[in-house]
Structure formats: C-alpha cells, structure tokens
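My convention is simple: the sequence line spells out the residues, with the fold written below as integer tokens. I include a record here:
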Amino acid sequence: MCASVVLGAAAQADVTLNTLFSDNAVLQRGVKVPVWGTAANGEAVTVTIAKQTAKATARDGKWTAWLRPMKAGGPFTMTVQGSNRLEVKNVLIGEVWICSGQSNMQWTLANSAGGQEEIAASADPHLRLYSVPRQATHEPIPDASSSWQVAGPETTGDFSGVAYFFGRDLRKALGVPVGLINTSYGGTPAEAWTNRAALARIPSLKYMVDNYGKMVEDYQKAITAYDQEITTFPQKVEIAKAEGKQPPVEPKKPADPSRNPHVAGGLYNAMISPLIPYSFKGAIWYQGESNAGRAYEYRTLFPAMIKNWRSEWKLGDFPFLFVQLAPFGTRPGRPDATWPELREAQLMTTQNTRRTGMAVIMDYGDCADIHPKPKEPVGGRLALAARAIAYGQKTDHTGPLYKSMKVKGSEIVLSFDRAAGGLVAKGGPLKGFTIAGATRRFVDADARIEGKTVVVSSPTVREPVAVRYGWSDCPEVNLFDGTGLPASPFRTDDFKMVTKP
C-alpha cells in the first residue's frame, strides 16, 4: 500500500499523493523537497514531517507543497491533511539517486555474478528501492504508479544489480539512508529518454522527432484502414464459407508507435517525466549499446539528454555519472568497429559537460555476452565517482586518461592525467596499443612504461604519426593506475570515423 488512509465516517478522500511518496520513501536531504498530488480545486492541503509543516492550495486539480531542507534521519511519518488525511509511514531523509539506462542497468541482482550470496545478505532498513514500470507513451504521464521497498532478500533480487551495488557502497561510505529509483529499459536508445522538444531544438537531431511524427501519421492512416477492414471481416468470412472458399486472414492491428520504447521521447514521457520534480542528488546511467552504430551522433545526443534532464528538474547541474561500454563483440582487427567510437563519445562527454563522471570497466567485459555478469565492480566504480564528484571526497575514481603525445624518432611518447599511484601494466607487458604512419594503417605495437609516460613503437613503422589504445569492440588491454582502475581507450589521431555521416 502506498499510503495508509485515515478517514472520518463522512469524509470524502479528495486528496491523493503521487506514488513517489509511498510508505518507505526516501526524501533528499539538504535541499527543498516538493511533495505533490491531486485534490479538488481550491482545497487547502497541509504536509507535516520531521517537526515542520508546508501548505499548498490545489489549482487545476493539482497541488505541490515545499518542505524546507532537512538533515538525514528517520524513520518519520508524513501526514497530508485536506478533506481527508493521509499517512506515509517509515520515511527516511537521506540521499536519493536516479538509476537509468538500458539492459545493463536493468540487469537484475539475481542474475549478476555473486548475486544469490548478495541477496541473502542484502537486508538494510536504510536502503530503499523504487522501480519504475517499463513503458513508453505519446504524452508525459503524471505518476509512475509504483512504490518504495525496503532492501532485503525479498526485494533486491529483481532490482538492478548495478544500482544495488552502487547504493550499498554509498551507504557504507556516507553512513546515511540511500534511496534508489530504477528507471531502465533494455535495448533502448538515448533519444527515447530525451524530451522531443529538446531534440527538436538541435538541427542534427530534429530528424528523430520528424521520423516519429511521420510514424504517428502513418499509424493513424493505417488504423483507419484497419477499422474499416475489421468491420467488414466477418461478412467476408461468411461469403467465403458460402462460396466454399478459404476464409480470408484476419487483418492485423497496426502497432502503435507511441508504445514503441525505441522512438524519440517515448521513455522520457513514461519513465522520466513522472519523476519530475522529485528532489534527488544525482543520476547514474548505463547505456550506449543501442547507439553504437551512430556513435558520432552520440557526441551531441548524450550531452543533450543530460542537459534536458537538468533543465526539466531545475536542480542545477546535478552529478551525472555513467558507465563506459564494456568490451564486447569482435576481437581486435576489424576496421569497421563502432564501439570504440561510442566509448570516445562517452569520454568526450566527461570533458565537455560539467559534473559528469565515467566508470571505465575495460577489465570486466565478455566478448561473447553483451551483458557482463560482474556488476559489483561497476556499481563500486560509480560509487567512487559519486564520492568524488557529488560529495567532494578525496578519492581516486578514474584510471589513466590520455593527455598528449610527442614523436621521438620512431617512437611515440604518451603522457597521461589521473594516474593515481603511477602507471601499471597489469598481468604482464602492456598490450592493446596500435601505431600508424602516414598510410594511416594501424598495426600492433610494442609499448612500455617509462616513468609517467608510455612509449609506443613498431619495427614496421619507422615514422609514426598516431597511436590508438583499446580501439576495437572487444580489446585486450591492461593499462591501469596504481589504485587498480583501468585506462580509458583513446586515440591520438583525428582521422575520419566509421560512424561520422
């Protein structure tokens, strides 16, 4: 039950609460917190929690009351008083995070490596979970129609593995309640999670909205034709029977594009918009597989989505942390690899978009499985990024990042940022580097660590011009920093990309 309702005999239950405010909810500490719902026009509504009261008056059937910033704590009971009285029990004040993306974020704890053992040990009254139903809609919907649950063996198994491990590690690091809102949908592209109006304002992305509009137009024509055909279908069947002929095949109802989770804006409407304006600290994101074939476009699309969310929530540039795509697919050698280009677009987002962070997981991929089972290190690295970016803790959260190159004779010397504890070749000599000369044909290279640099060469390339590292769908790489975090793949060149239009 989302909230327990106490009614007088003659009272009419006009006041309702959005289901984000169900029993077991977590409210964000340290900021103003909106609480909202529906009521009869003009109805006065009073919200009380943690020794404070906020009031609102319903307009157009809706009301929003704003609570003053609160310190972490609880549990509390929140009361909402109008013509009827609502009670929301077991409410905590702490840190709230949005957890979104496609299948690797949706991937459950039960199906993750070590999941069963973790589920058995997952009872934590101060970790709370809210799961948004998976759907797409034509217009924004007002309520996700779900409820908060307390973490434990009965609730964590079906929750996102990445999000659970992230929340678990944050709980340990911060010592305050944590609430996780899982809104993820497998196999979906970033444009589905972005408001259509935001996409339409960007010339290179407007085609996505235009395509959806054409799909809706075609659907309306098709459904009109279908309605006519289905009306006359029984008569056609009877005529065929009477004439001893094979009955016609029943017309198939056209698919409604507004329910398609792959079209522009559909998931934003159904799985992001109903969460706004719920107060939270930041977002974690694991997606990109469905956009890899348009990796160059992702340079624009992904930051546009982040900007859109930040604009709609009006919480400022909240921390947005994401996972770089893990190794998957073909081993090194294919010239048409698109996943390294998507990884580069993700890396560029951290460089060009404020308060973003990226968890590199090049050591946890599976060339044969797009869903690598180890989710604990993924959630753990996102938690490291959160501790640094969202909470200002002095903790290393990213491995070596390429900085610059210098040609010295037949070798190229690479310099790096963010190599806490120095550069490390994990498990043996460095691998994953390729080098090219003026022909732009990359060949496997020898690489060695010299102090704070990596020196790359090949006996077949006497006059090198460029180096790439981990530049394939599923590379074998082993450059780390001294804390155990892997380097992001990179390239020193600006040669034309496979996915550039």
In short: The radius of gyration is 26 Å.
